[in-house]
Design a protein that fits this description.
This protein is of the alpha/beta class. The protein has a single domain, classed as Metallo-beta-lactamase, Chain A. It has eleven helices and twelve strands. The strands form two sheets. It has a seven-stranded mixed β-sheet with strand order 1-2-3-4-5-6-7. Strands 8-9-10-11-12 form a five-stranded mixed β-sheet, with no helix packed on it. The chain is globular and about 55 Å long. The relative contact order is 0.13.
Length: 298
């Protein structure tokens, strides 16, 4: 699925199916720039998508990742091997230089599915990793990429502002097609208070366009964030109420999956569309992320 808005083109990485995980190619006066890389397991798809836009991977000298989760930054090291600089939040930079802890943590979650889902993540030389402070801008010829620190989904999350658009990673929610905006809520960093602050900050930019990694280009920013806030509250409250009954996470997963199915169906989504949301944002992850959050609050 290819969408273009101004200099920004969506690259569909075909994670299991089309339309679930994107990278974004930005045409700038200093050459093509990449926002997000997808997982290393899909590097071949990323390369093919870049080539289809008329560029080689060696043409890309700047790579911006919203955060270091593997579906967003997993292929960053491969771009670095071609000479690119990789821009990231200061709290994520060390994990790109030495991804051992990041990969070990992911392997504990995904077990035997780890390699087929996400592939490898090798170290990036420290001099190719650029930690961006809050509000810092990177000039790109006549354009600029501004880093806005937006925690809530992860403490090391950046939303990138370029002209009238925001690359919102995961803190701006998942929105596939014309469906609702759903917050992905995995452990360990979920924080509903800072997430609310980040939504307010993204709104305050006045951006018209939203570029969510999951998925594409949206031109109705206010409605997008309205839906995100509504569903963030709805989902978090559901988990909190179930925890109050003493139910543990494992027991909570099947009813939560049914709850999410009904929530999405209530927006008129078809079964295939609901499945796309589950692929992009597995429901079980939100149970564990929110349970951890509510226990910390208690």
């Amino acid at each position: 699925m290819i969408q273009t808005q101004g200099p920004v083109t969506t690259l569909d990485l075909h994670f299991k199916v089309p339309g679930t995980v994107a990278a974004f190619l930005v045409r700038t006066p200093v050459g093509p720039v990449l926002v997000e890389t997808g997982p290393e397991s899909l590097y071949g798809n990323l390369e093919a998508a870049v080539n289809a836009q008329g560029f080689a991977m060696t043409d890309i000298r700047h790579v911006f990742v919203t955060h270091i989760h593997l579906d967003h930054a997993g292929s960053a090291w491969r771009l670095a091997r071609h000479g690119a600089k990789v821009y990231v939040h200061p709290r994520g930079a060390a994990h790109l230089v030495d991804p051992t802890k990041l990969m070990d943590s992911a392997r504990r979650i995904y077990k035997d599915d780890m390699d087929p889902l996400w592939g490898r993540m090798d170290a990036i030389p420290a001099d190719q990793v650029v930690a961006l402070g809050d509000g810092e801008s990177v000039p790109l010829g006549g354009l600029a990429m501004e880093a806005l620190h937006t925690p809530g989904h992860a403490v090391h999350h950046i939303t990138y502002r370029m002209e009238d658009g925001l690359f919102t990673g995961d803190v701006g929610g998942i929105r596939i097609g014309n469906g609702p905006t759903i917050p992905p809520l995995p452990p360990p960093d979920i924080d509903l208070g800072t997430w609310a602050d980040s939504i307010a900050r993204m709104r305050a930019t006045g951006a018209q366009f939203i570029y969510p990694t999951h998925f594409g280009i949206k031109d109705d920013a206010a409605a997008h964030f309205d839906s995100l806030e509504e569903n963030l509250h709805r989902i978090a409250t559901w988990v909190k109420d179930r925890m109050a009954t003493g139910e543990d996470e494992a027991a909570m997963v099947p009813p939560f999956q049914a709850f999410m199915h009904d929530l999405l169906a209530g927006y008129g989504l078809s079964e295939p569309a609901i499945e796309l949301y589950e692929i992009a944002d597995p429901a079980f992850m939100s149970v564990y992320g929110l349970a951890r959050y509510w226990r910390k609050q208690a």
